[in-house]
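We treat protein structure as text, and this decision shapes the records that our systems exchange. The remainder of this section carries one protein's record, kept here as part of the documentation:
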Amino acid sequence: MNARSQRQTTSTSRLRLQIATTHMNPKTYRRIIRASAIYDIIVTLPFAIPVLAAWNLAQITGLHNSLGFSGSIPEFEPLHIFFVNLMGTVVMTWSFLRVIRPDPLLGLLDGVGRFLFSTWMLYYLFVHSATAILWLYFVPEILWGIVQVFGYLKLPADAKKPIYLATP
């Protein structure tokens, strides 16, 4: 091994060690939690309000049809819209909690929830031929999940203690 190759190997090894031992700054992690919550509010608000949900679903259907995407979008009956609104309201409540209190444990749980949502999206895309528009929701969902779960794992141990249990 020549000297240049040895320096590159040493430099790469140091970088890997630095990445492996680097901690996530707790303030940065709280900003990530808050940013993911704000993203959720923006994306979910149109599903949480009955009139907006119907309009939003019509826009999604129009986009699906105009782009000739694969998969299908069913006609929504009032009961379907009710469940869309119900889930939108739950997500909005969860999002406001994370904006107000960006606790590391909430970030971890949100990341795990995003992995589950992403799994359900893949299930409906591949098993039930749902509209390919789901990919537009899948990509940010899985990315937020990765950032939040791995961000939590990179926090120093003392920063993982839930805020409501922290002593002043």
Remarks:
- The first helix runs from residue 3 to 21.
- The chain has a mean pLDDT of 89.
- The CA atoms of residues 107 and 153 lie 11 Å apart.
